Amino acid sequence: MAPPPPSAPAGDPTLTAPIPVTTQRPAWRDTFISLRIPNFRLFAISHLVAVVALWMQRIAQDWMVLQLSGSVTAVGITVALQFAPMLLLGPWGGVVADRYPKRLLLIITQSIAALMATAMAVLALTGLIQVWHVYVIAFVIGLVTVVDAPARQVFVNDLVGPTYLRNAISLNSSVFQLGAMVGPAVSGILIVAVGGGWAFAINALACTYTVFTLYRLRTDQLNTVAPAPRTKGQLRQGARYLVSKPPILWCTVAAGFVAIFALSTPVLMAAFADSVFHSGAGGYGLLNTALATGALVGALASTRRTQLRLRGVLGGMTAFGGFMALAAYVPNQFAFTVLMFFAGVGSLWFVTGANQLVQVSTNVAIRGRVMSLYMMVLIGGQAVGGPMIGWLAENIGAQTTLLIAGGVPVLAAGAIAVVLARRGQLTVRFRWTPAPHERRRLVAIVPKVQAG
Fold this sequence. Notes:
The chain is mainly alpha-helical. The chain has helices spanning 38-69, 72-99, 102-125, 131-160, 165-193, 197-216, 234-244, 246-262, 265-276, 280-301, 310-327, 333-360, 367-396, 398-422; strands spanning 19-20, 307-308, 426-430, 443-447. GO terms for molecular function: transmembrane transporter activity.
């Protein structure tokens, strides 16, 4: 893989053109090439364990709130409390990630997460758990995420360097989705069999294992970047950088629409399992597993990309929202589950594409701040979307809410494409390829070639 090209000057129209990241499509044997790096391999294994346990806790937490309160809105509030700190404090997390060693930051954040999971386990297993306990712990975990999310994103570069960065990002997303596929299914079984308290205990052990792994990494093999010096205006510098680069700006705008509407799927899946299909905790776990399975396929498919394009990001956004909207009024859970699988594919094609495009378009010295702004929108947007989607599901029905949650991102993707076309950065071409051996394409959105 070739390293990404140097950043072009702000305002350069070529910024919206495809960014070459490989000279040819990677061989199938290189799909997992970044795992050949020992440090990344250790990190990926611990990440998988942590994500499985995290999703076990998340499903148990949401279902427990639903059972304790009888309210989908309460589940939405839990989601909001977990993501609100990122919405409010996200940029400062990026400053911290640029200023201090990422490995140390992750050790601290995962240690706190282990303590929170332990507290949840004790409260749940002793029968003392109340909704307000979940709210408080969800908020503390949200505070941890403010630093953990940007530090984790940028730490991938420390582990693999720029050459394998894109592959490592895709594999990191694949690991996350594999965990998200396994975790909900295991959690659903666990809740039915012995109760959700054990999911919290397992997550506490997983966080502890992550801390142990971070201590085991070979520090002499890390591609560390010199910390950013403490200066005034670092947040403004990151914001100006984001706005000046069209790929970063439009990925962030798209992420906002997806986060607020489409990423509140746990709330919607709880509503469908409880009031539409009446399938209980097992059905809730199954629906989340279908989404995660599709997302895993989408993340693995993203390792085959040879170029990063805004049109690919918008295509993933359209597919994600489109399949969600199609699923709104299907007659049975089987058809709904199938459509959720395809929605999951679209979601990760969007998320990995946007994540990669933002990272390779950003100078490494400012990447923590830029990623924190992007993550503030992607994660923090769910703090707005969670309670909003929960309220809508209770008041206008889960099915109509799902239609809105999927339809708005589709309309937003179309609007962004129109704006880019009007600015001369993308154009729509209609063409017909009559030769039977060639692929037929009626419409293509491509970068507009500027004269001169």
